[in-house]
Amino acid sequence: MPENDQELLSRLQNDDEVAYKWIYSRYAEKLFLYAMNILKHQEICEDIIQNVFIQLWEKRKENNITHLKPYLYQSVKFQVFKSFRNQHFKQEDLTRLNLVDASLNASRQIEFDELESLINSLVDKLTPKCREIFIMSRFEEKSNKQIAEELGMSIQTVKNQVSKAIKKLREQMTQEQIVIYPIIIFMLTL
């Protein structure tokens, strides 16, 4: 099984049915549980998951999906809302949807906190000068020229140190961390 969703998406867009089956096996049960937590109606949830995966296959060439997991959960959420619109659900169903959505937001915050902690620990491992320049560049958002002037060095030295820091950070992260955390990519490619 491919390790990351990006590879699966790429293969899916090239009509790879095996990749489609891997995506299904990786996410169908989780998406079903997500829908069940909201609706508590098994048949409706099964239909929703089926519709999401049918649409994923049918629109594989048209969709510009960059992050598979959030896309699938958003698709299920849309189908749940559509189901609410087409049927009359009780207020408790809507409340459950809000609670599950709040829970997902809390989960995202935890992931962000973990990401921030990971970045800080990796930055702390850089050499003192490299760390100082990287922090000024990425966290304080100073230009290479500003950093060079402040530290009394050439702009090229600043560029070299930032490149060195990025290279070391990339080496210390797994590929999955780079794919899962788009903010890391943003920080490492500025």
From TrEMBL:
<keyword id="KW-0804">Transcription</keyword>
<dbReference type="InterPro" id="IPR014327">
    <property type="entry name" value="RNA_pol_sigma70_bacteroid"/>
</dbReference>
<keyword id="KW-0731">Sigma factor</keyword>
<dbReference type="InterPro" id="IPR036388">
    <property type="entry name" value="WH-like_DNA-bd_sf"/>
</dbReference>
<dbReference type="InterPro" id="IPR013249">
    <property type="entry name" value="RNA_pol_sigma70_r4_t2"/>
</dbReference>
<feature type="domain" description="RNA polymerase sigma-70 region 2">
    <location>
        <begin position="23"/>
        <end position="87"/>
    </location>
</feature>
<dbReference type="GO" id="GO:0006352">
    <property type="term" value="P:DNA-templated transcription initiation"/>
</dbReference>
<dbReference type="Pfam" id="PF08281">
    <property type="entry name" value="Sigma70_r4_2"/>
</dbReference>
<dbReference type="InterPro" id="IPR039425">
    <property type="entry name" value="RNA_pol_sigma-70-like"/>
</dbReference>
<dbReference type="InterPro" id="IPR013324">
    <property type="entry name" value="RNA_pol_sigma_r3/r4-like"/>
</dbReference>
<keyword id="KW-0805">Transcription regulation</keyword>
<dbReference type="InterPro" id="IPR007627">
    <property type="entry name" value="RNA_pol_sigma70_r2"/>
</dbReference>
<dbReference type="Pfam" id="PF04542">
    <property type="entry name" value="Sigma70_r2"/>
</dbReference>
<dbReference type="InterPro" id="IPR013325">
    <property type="entry name" value="RNA_pol_sigma_r2"/>
</dbReference>
<dbReference type="GO" id="GO:0003677">
    <property type="term" value="F:DNA binding"/>
</dbReference>
<dbReference type="GO" id="GO:0016987">
    <property type="term" value="F:sigma factor activity"/>
</dbReference>
<dbReference type="InterPro" id="IPR014284">
    <property type="entry name" value="RNA_pol_sigma-70_dom"/>
</dbReference>
<feature type="domain" description="RNA polymerase sigma factor 70 region 4 type 2">
    <location>
        <begin position="120"/>
        <end position="169"/>
    </location>
</feature>
<comment type="similarity">
    <text>Belongs to the sigma-70 factor family. ECF subfamily.</text>
</comment>
<protein>
    <submittedName>
        <fullName>RNA polymerase sigma-70 factor</fullName>
    </submittedName>
</protein>
